[in-house]
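Incident log, structure service

09:12 report received: a user says their structure output differs between two submissions of the same chain.
09:20 pulled the input from the user's history:
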Amino acid sequence: MITKKTIAYTISAILTILIINTKSMAQDHKIYRIAKITVDPAQLDKYQAALKEQMTTAIAVEPGVLSYYAVSDKKDATHITIFEIYADSTAYQAHIQTPHFKKYKETVKDMVKSLYLEDVDVIGIAKKPGM
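09:34 re-ran on a clean worker, output below:
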């Protein structure tokens, strides 16, 4: 089970790898979403392959899909957290209508035991230059 402490550490770690830009954050229309997924252990490898294919394709062909960070719990690899950034709500709505996203959803529908989506606001960003 994912604990609040694990979630807090995951969110904190992910946010620290983003760039600080106070001015643009004030006018930020980006969509920041966290997906918390539990995968059937017997299908974990297949799930990870489908996820990587979807993420790679979306980044390559969709200008409004800005980044994905997918991580798994070190103690239970079936608990996956994905931090997603979209240019705006229009980009997100377009993304969920793409053939590659629909293929992903169809492929993983029997692999995913639970899914929780949470929209979040960025309250701070820090990262090393060149990261």
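09:41 both user submissions now match this output. Likely a transient worker issue. Closing.
09:42 reviewer note: Residues 33 and 131 are 20 Å apart (CA to CA). Strands lie at 31-39, 65-72, 79-86, 112-120.
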